[in-house]
Every structure is written in structure tokens, then in C-alpha cells.
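Workshop exercise sheet. Pairs work together: one partner reads the sequence aloud, the other fills in the structure field after running the prediction. Swap roles for the next sheet.
Pair: D.N. / O.F.
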Amino acid sequence: MSAVPEPKRPPKPRGDLAGMAQALAEFAQSEFPQAEPARSRIAVLVPCFNEEAAVATVIADFRKALPSAEIFVYDNNSTDRTAAVARDAGAVTRSERRQGKGHVVRRMFADVDADIYVLVDGDATYDAASAPRMIDTLLSGHLDMVVGLRVDQAEAAWRPGHRTGNRLLTGFLSSVFGEAFKDILSGYRVFSRRFVKSFPVLSDGFEIETELSVHALELALPVAEVETPYYARPEGSVSKLNTWRDGIRILGTILKLYRSEKPLRFFMAIAVFLTLVSVGLAFPVLVTYLEEGLVPRLPTAVLSMGLMISAVLSVSSGLVLDTVTRGRREMKLLAYLTQAPAAKD
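Structure field:
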């Protein structure tokens, strides 16, 4: 029969109290080893639509830059082999049937559980080597979002009109919501769990980047931008952006967000416009009445009065909606505060 191993016994105590304490500490450490502190879980989120030519490169680059991260590729009704290529490259592959980047990001944020989220397009135009620096900026600065500020490395990185459109939209957003970003349309971002789990995605398409920026500005969340190289698409990869169509949609999104997030200013501007038109129409009628005691242009007087009533109603609507918006903002902040902040390993 094999001998039964004897249980470990505490070492013999030393003569002094300090020695006894050290011996007991060593015994406790050997018998009850402490687990290593948990590392932050990092998820790389890659929305894709017909990116067969580039998605494998994106996966390989981010696996090299972030070895401990889990990479998720969400296929959005691709007609090529995007999903199969991503699966063969070792990524967790899932699908979203509703067409549009906004729908994909909504599904990603709801499904994936992590402490740090890296959102990047699947077209191999963003620099994976910048991800550790962006994550370190997020953690060391206790931030909730870090945006990759694109620095183009080739003339072909930007399509004609996109650079100008990006500057115009960024400038307009800054004038409306406050200046905090130089590149609101960047598809390369790092988020804290707090941000992701408190962000209600409402956009459907490429205007999602604008909504992300406005959400951070409205809640006054700590954010930063980090310069990162921006490359041209690899051969065989085609951009899905349409300069005019998507530019108009993004501009429309900014106006919608301005109406919903700053309703008092929005409806006050309408009220001022209506008031000026009303006064302009009423002034000649009033002068004629004071001179002749008659109102010869009755339809103009009725129109002027209707415009003034509309102006008053516009101000009233702005006041009511401003109260509603404040309540919604408080709910978003409460949802944000229920999540623990990201901690540096």
C-alpha cells in the first residue's frame, strides 16, 4: 500500500514574536494561495459589410496588438465571404440582419460583455498598433471615450469631398454642442463599460459616430482624442460611404439631436424667426390704421396674428420639452453611474 502523505504542519515558531508572525504568514500563503487580480476584459468590435478583402488583416493586426482581447466580427448581410474569412481567422463571428452600421453597433453594445471596448471598422484603414496607447489613455486619464484622430498616410485614404465634409460637420457640431472633437466621424474609438452600457443607440447608419460624440458632450463625459495613422483601403476593398447622401444624413442627425437635446434653443430660434416675420407684416398694416383708421389688408393682419401665435406656441413647446430633456439626461446619468469605472491593471 502506498503511504498516505502527512498533512503539512506549521513550522516551529521562532523565539521572537516577529519571527512567529512571519512563519505564520508563510504557512498561510503556502496553504491558501491568493488568486491573481483579474485583468480588464478587452473586446474588439468589428462591424463588417462586404469586407472579405480586409477583415482577416484587421483580425491579425489586433490580435498582435492586443493578445488578451477577444475579437468580435458582426456581419451585416454581406454578399461575399466576410463571415467565413473572419471565422477562419479566429474571430467570434455573429450577424445582424437589419442593414446599417447603427443597427450593428446597437447589437454589439447589447451582446458583448467587457470592461473596455475597441470599436473599429473592418476595412484595414485604422492602425491596430495604436490601440494599446488609446486604451492606456482611457485608463490613466479615467476617461469614458478615446477617439482615434485620423492622420492620413496616403492621399487615397480620404475620398474626394470627405475631408471637407468632415471638417464642415465637425465645425457645425462644435458650434452647436461645444468644441471637444476634431474628428467626429472617426470609426476608431475606445470606450469604457460605463459609456457602452448607458448609451441608447438610436441611429441606423453611418451617423452613429455623430450620435456617440453628442452623447459624450451632452453628459459632459471625460473624453480625449489620440492621433492615429489612417491608411488607404487595401486593393479589393470598396468604401460603402456616399459623400452627398451620407453627408446629408449626418447633417440631419445633428439637427435632430439639437432639437431633442437642446429643445429650448431650437424652438426659441423658430419663435424669433416667426416673430420677425409677423412684425414685418404687421408694421405697414399698423401704420395704415394709425393714419386712416382702416385695415385695408385684413388677410395680412390675420396672417401676422397667426404667425405671432405660432411663435408663442413654439416658445411654450420649447419650455415643456426642455423639462422633458432634463429628465432624460438625468436617467442617462443614473444609468451611467450604475456601472463601475474602468480600473487600470
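Discussion prompt: The chain has eleven helices and seven strands. What would you look at next?
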